[in-house]
Amino acid sequence: MQSKANKIIIFSPIDLSSSIHGSQQDILNRIKLFQEIGYRVIVASFEKKHIETRNNINRIIELIEKEKPDILWFEYLIFAKIVKDVRNRYPGLKIYFRNHNYEFGHVLEKWIDNFKRSKDISSLPSLLFNLWQIRKYENLMFKHSDKVFAISKLDMEKYRKYSNLYYLPFFKDYEFNYEVKKGKDRLDVFYFGSDFKNNVNLSGLEFIHRKIIPCLKNNKVFFHILGKNCPLNIKHPQIKLQGFVGDSDSFLKNMDVAIVPVEIGYGMKIKAYESLKKGFPTILSERSHKIFGGEESRDYLVARNPKQWAQHINRLFDEKLRKELICNCKKFMLENFNKENLLGFFEQINNHNSSD
Fold first, then answer.
1. Is 1 a residue whose pLDDT tops 50?
2. Which domains does the chain have, with CATH numbers?
3. Strands (DSSP E) along the chain, which ranges?
């Protein structure tokens, strides 16, 4: 006999109707999967800075009282500010958290990168206070949640001491499949930069400009940079600044290789996910490799220094190697990031709650 569908309230600190970035994609695609297996989904968005105000707490209580949900699903660590009160008031409700990155390391690395650029240490007291708060919120989240879902293999490693931690990978389908272009005497390499006001994305572009190209010494390789707000000092004959590309599939039909030279920032590297999901032979940084957990030199290549980046890029002139990587990365992505596994996982949650 089919169990009744559960009602779930998803609390989000970001507006899901605004321009779509990686975190919004993760939330929206998951909502669709919930609905596909019969969940009744209600979404409540809050401003990130004011979640713990009395008005918002009252709003959450009123929503729970009105909808009588089976599950409360909180997106991001920020909601840990109120989770203790919610748990005490509703001890029988299932509380789940989606943790989008290892926040402590994410905040620290971004501050260090900013300091290297500006040499300004004035924000150090604020950083230390933020790190203290993050640890406090992490403890609250794990203590008062039934399950916490990490988005990457690296986050699973960082939070491994917690028994209620589960892996829930990012998911989005892409229909475009890469094909090897034969007979080309050049290699077209692309980097999904998104928005270069984000210093995580900017760090990858700077690494291409300052480290990879000087080490490469091959004028038949061209780097196509996709993303807005590119700094004016990024200029080189082998760098092609494409800006925002609306129809990425049409653009990528002329590309040969994807690279993700980003060594800072935790959470999911959507730029790497999309490149791999579309079947491109891809070179990842060590950080991105740890996030995905694939097999190095089988599912994708991994570069740890400028010399290795240059070597791998030159190796990928070989059409046979590109074909091998395409075949292996498709298999890896289908096995580890597929809709059927996620639907089965959500159905288990649904059936477990319905039988309680």
1. no
2. 7-171+338-355 (3.40.50.2000), 187-336 (3.40.50.2000)
3. 7-12, 40-45, 71-75, 94-99, 147-150, 165-167, 187-195, 221-228, 239-243, 257-260, 282-285, 301-303
